């Protein structure tokens, strides 16, 4: 009851998290009264010549609170259920669902539960699935053996905790994990509603962490002996690398600006001192920003020279064309209000994306068939 009351007070105070209505925050400055990345209603801005999205098909439907997605090398998609704490395998050709099992130790509450998943970089030999989840005491990262030879529902081994102690809350649990081109494990965390944690380099909240596959601070991290890679984040839920191995991350704002950031190790991204762009050189500015009702971003992916970003409250898919670590043109929105809240987007290769909706998470308006995985063709 205390946690529910705390969440209610935070939301009443204007805390825009995964699509909750924003409060009466500070007004945007006159020079940025509207995001340069935001199209104006009614109607979307015409996409640039090389920007298009086509929905090829619905891969699977009837999913419960889907969150993380991982593509198996031999075919098949793994999807985590935030609230049921299960991992399910989807046959991407037929849509058949096979439940691997339930991840023990998960304590779903608010925005917490079973969140991001990723395959071991040595998956071909170790068959390990990594998962980020909320336990009764913290957010943590575990790994589990996946044995497809066992009966459905019994294919997950016991979770082996490799990293723990990430602050948990009813809101702002972060949750995205991904192995980078360097073979290290990256994790986006939230400040759990305690703003000060984001600027505290000794805290794991409001950070991007970089770990070895065994859960130790990765060699070459900017703060010796620390897993912290960047700090000053509010709630990171999207991680993706471009074709030149440069990392990008999406981040929830509060009342005014959501962000897409180019990640530079050791940099301070400003929260809670600043939200969105700032004139203070101490803080790394986002490469694009949006009003919170147009984005509330979660997952991101890189394809065809652009970052593609899923919007929860914004209920649209954003394309951010890149030139180096900058946006080369104003972002464009697609699928606006077509499939509801969008949680995860992942590269499917060959100019295609997997897109996961998020309408059964308690904040959406589920339609028949929700939630679903879509296959998109993009350019």
Automatic annotation (TrEMBL):
InterPro entries with a match to the protein in the record: 6-blade_b-propeller_TolB-like, Glc/Sorbosone_DH, Quinoprot_gluc/sorb_DH_b-prop
Span list, region Disordered: 16-51
Record-linked Gene3D superfamilies: TolB, C-terminal domain
Biased composition (Low complexity): 16-49
Domain Glucose/Sorbosone dehydrogenase: 63-363
The name this protein goes by in its record: PQQ-dependent sugar dehydrogenase
Species of origin: Streptomyces carpinensis
